[in-house]
Design goal:
CATH class: Alpha Beta
Number of domains: 1
Structural class: alpha/beta
Helix content: 40-55%
Radius of gyration: 16 Å
Largest sheet: 7 strands, parallel
Number of helices: 9
């Protein structure tokens, strides 16, 4: 099965911020591989998230603060729109990966940090919930840093929508993969699988833990258990990953298991 890659040329723009997630060249290695493998990847172009989409996850004051920064808002709204498109594609039973920036899993309802501005994951899942497509979701957040924004927004819903989140804690690669699979074995009733896909846990990145084949296994586990539990509905959203020389191969490795 091929994977839909949600991508917009605007994501190459690094003028929205001066942090490591916005540095020139971060996405080039990823997209070079993707564009050279048409048998596995199909690129689709998103549109920006609407104000209503963003306000499901964020306070009006936070929205207005980001909107007041024109270049940042343009990039952040388009990233959120890419996450929404990935979620919609996944709901229709095609795996998808959103190669977007800025990332989002450190953005809470009224605040943000860690190179994030809007919470792309929360916005995408709440969009599906608002359309009455899902009531339960599972997130595997395998970024080096715990996605506190995902937790703050999505584990505190006061309605029928429930989200379970795993941020693996193991510091040995074999135990890390065992932790993920052990958790998935206990999932019984969710409507969609999603990954906050950060690649800064890589052996050649900040975390110095996971090898390319480990990312393939994470993708395979997402595929296997989503197929068992929710008809294969699964998508991933790019979060961290800062070694430009290896992030492309790590993303490709994950997607080969995920497809």
């Amino acid at each position: 099965m091929s994977i839909k890659i949600v991508f917009h040329e605007h994501y190459y723009n690094c003028q929205y911020a001066t942090d490591p997630a916005a540095t020139e060249g971060r996405l080039n290695g990823i997209m070079e591989i993707i564009k050279n493998k048409p048998e596995l990847y199909e690129i689709v172009e998103p549109v920006p998230a609407s104000k209503a989409d963003i306000l499901r996850a964020h306070s009006k004051s936070h929205y207005e603060d980001i909107k007041s920064q024109v270049v940042l808002y343009e990039s952040s709204a388009l990233a959120a729109g890419g996450a929404i498109m990935a979620a919609e594609i996944a709901f229709n039973n095609t795996p998808s990966f959103a190669v977007i920036r800025p990332p989002g899993h450190h953005a809470s309802s009224e605040s943000c940090w860690g190179f994030c501005h809007f919470n792309n994951m929360a916005i995408s899942l709440l969009k599906l919930y608002s359309e009455k497509k899902i009531k339960k979701a599972f997130i595997l957040d395998f970024d080096l840093h715990t996605g506190d924004g995902n937790i703050n927004i999505l584990e505190d819903q006061n309605d029928e929508f429930t989200v379970s989140i795993l941020n693996p804690k193991s510091t040995e690669r074999g135990l890390y993969l065992q932790e993920v699979e052990g958790h998935m074995e206990n999932i019984t009733d969710v409507d969609i699988f999603a990954a906050s896909a950060g690649f800064d846990q890589g052996i050649d990145d900040w975390g110095h833990l996971l090898y390319p084949e480990d990312y393939t296994e994470l993708g395979r586990l997402m595929k296997e258990y989503s197929q068992k539990i929710c008809s294969g509905r699964r998508y991933a959203i790019l979060e961290g990953g800062y070694n430009h020389q290896v992030i492309g191969s790590n993303v490709d490795s994950f997607c080969r298991g995920f497809a």
